[in-house]
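Ticket #4471: complex job returned nothing on first submit. Input attached below:
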Amino acid sequence: MHPILKGDNCKKFLLGNEAIVRGAVESRVQVGAAYPGTPSSEIGNNLFQMQKDLSGLYFEFAVNEKVAMEIVGAASACGLRSITCMKHVGLNVASDAFMSLAYVGVEGGLVVVTADDPSCHSSQNEQDNRYYAKLAQVPMLEAFDPHTAYVLTKEAFSLSEKFKLPVLLRTTTRVSHARGVVEVGAIPFDFYTTFKKGFFKKDPFRFVPVPAVARKQHKLLLEKLEELQNLASSFNFNQFIPKGKLGICASGVAVNYVIDALEDLGLQDEVSLLILTFTHPFPEKLALEFLSQVETCVVVEELEPYLEENLRALAYTHGLKTKILGKKEKLLPRYFEFTPTQVKEALANAFNLKRFTVEVPPFDFSDKLPARPPVLCQGCPHRETYKLIKEVLQEMGIEERTIYPTDIGCYTLGIQPPLNMADYLLCMGSSVGTPCGFDVATDQRVVAFIGDSTFFHAGLSPLVNAKFNKHNFTLVVLDNDTTAMTGHQPVPSQTIKSPIIQDHPTIPIQKIVEALDIPYVVINPYKKEEAKELIQPLLEKQELSVIIAKAPCILYKTKSQKGS
Amino acid sequence: MKKIKGLVVGVGGQGIILFTRVLGEACLKADIPVIVSEVHGMAQRGGVVESSICLFGKSPYTSEGEADFIVAFEPAEALRFVKRAKKETKFIISKDPILPFAVKEGSANYPDLNPFFEEMTSYFNQVFLVPGEELAKEAGSVKALNMVMLGAATALEIFPLNREALVEAMLELLPEKLHQVNLKAFDLGFNYIKSIL
Ligand SMILES: Cc1ncc(C[n+]2csc(CCOP(=O)(O)OP(=O)(O)O)c2C)c(N)n1
Ligand code: SF4
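Support reply: We reran it on our side without changes. The output follows.
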């Protein structure tokens, strides 16, 4: 049996992401769909594996976040509880569907997990997705540790079903990838013995947001928000703990740093706390009660001043003189994750505790030590592909001025010396869209790189654009049979498949390219001379072409041979 | 109880996650509040890996000047994280270097660490070097370095748990075919520290 399913009504040591999975299954989730992305990936990975044990659960890895959002939207419209999860930038991709889901609403509870990444541990930005809740006008819950991730997942399902709205559940890397003690309930194994189908009750004047419908639905949505606003103030897991005239309002992982810091500073009995997990709509009544009882309120939240703006607006509206300290005063920064020491110092500062200093060792060796950036594995096929393409371009004498648009995956590590073969990147799929622009704007050769999973995620439509609008560049598709970077999830072109999807078809990339009538070659990157001969003619011609470099990821190959 | 905070550092692929899993499961059994952070994603590809441990507290992050202990699976990584330490920090360091890719390729060099260690040991008085690779090999697999380090840390009594509690948690987590190697690795690390104390 899957380890997350083991044990009822006991304490388990779970990763934040595993706690979300446990909470979802205890809530009788039936349908899940997701595209992987650190730090959210373990949610999908575990739901995928769990299907083996729970016949009543369906999960699929969708080609991208938007498709995943559409799948769970439809499933929930049929009355089934559903979940999707994604990294913060994944919600950019899914946002179009997400915005409309708020208007048409849901039937079965629908939870959308966004895992944000302050400090960019494995991302291209550190956007704060709490603003998506505000933008889409949907309720949002913020977890601060694995236990709250579990509890809030369960709350999110009932909240969603009650208000017929998707609920955004927000974590960050430090929550998703923290492992802690979670007090779990029971798994409804009986419910999961078979997959129980739902039923779609037609209601086009709700589910088809043509302008007339959308206008009506938006008003309805705003009415629901008002009700939710009241509910947020009485929400069980929003806590106002009144103590003295000094106050702190916090959400997310910073809650832990605040509690630990107060203990370290000996202030736990003096400072009033407003700990928030239901943060959109903002719990105004509760916050007002807090603001009226304290003289100073320090706001401790990572990234954007989301709580802070709400608190300031509230204080202004109600004519409160409470001193609010946060990002505006630069007490804490708007970038990177916080550290406990940083929070402790900020609090000591805000509360004028002169006696407090953190003693750190008087030396630092970090700039004398060798850097240790992540690297392509020994024997990785991507490295071989990069090397041989570089060589051909060098032999042609144009390597230095060739532009290498790149994309997101293990192969982005081609940025490092000695390869230096990554020049421009925006987001997934940009390796195919941006060459269209480079082609128009310069005479330099353009050789772009994209992984197989990324190709299916967002590379298909720009390739059609390139063909239709007559753009000239060479696209190299690194077809390694898997989504390697995020932990080896399936891709449509793969030949080695997990037993769970053994009967799914293989969709070869070359057939797609053939259908578009684009010249292409398929190479084995380990056969260098042969491959160089094959690609040379394509690189010499100034026209749209595709090189498919086909060789499985070394790690994936060994993993699947071992049968895991 | 007073908080105990620590850090386990090393290089992606060294098995740090198992170290913190075993420790956490043992704490769970003993009803000790525990939270750790794991590294998943990009850094696992041979990058720097750090995992924070907090017992009796809430923060899954051990930051500057906070560590009660630092377990380093690689000597340069121990040095990289000294700022997290305080005067009384206990260091347990596997002394075998792992060369970064750029060093192996010849485009960067791995400096002699001895001068740094001299500076370090003149400030901290609890730095323990462990012949990690040798002990792991003796146990039967270099991959068992994580359990050598866990055994060593246990012998130093940095956790409020004894050898039996950790061994029990370890055996429950690992498949049976790995029991012998890992148990031996744990004990070799444990006994090594006991022998130099
Ligand atoms: C919109 C978005 N979703 C997800 C991710 C996370 N992500 C980064 S790389 C990657 C997949 C890469 O797979 P592939 O293109 O096959 O390359 P490989 O890692 O196998 O070389 C994913 C899912 C992201 N960066 N952006
Ligand atoms: S995981 Fe696979 S694709 Fe990624 S670097 Fe390693 S071998 Fe290459």
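The mean pLDDT of chain B is 96. Closing as resolved unless it happens again.
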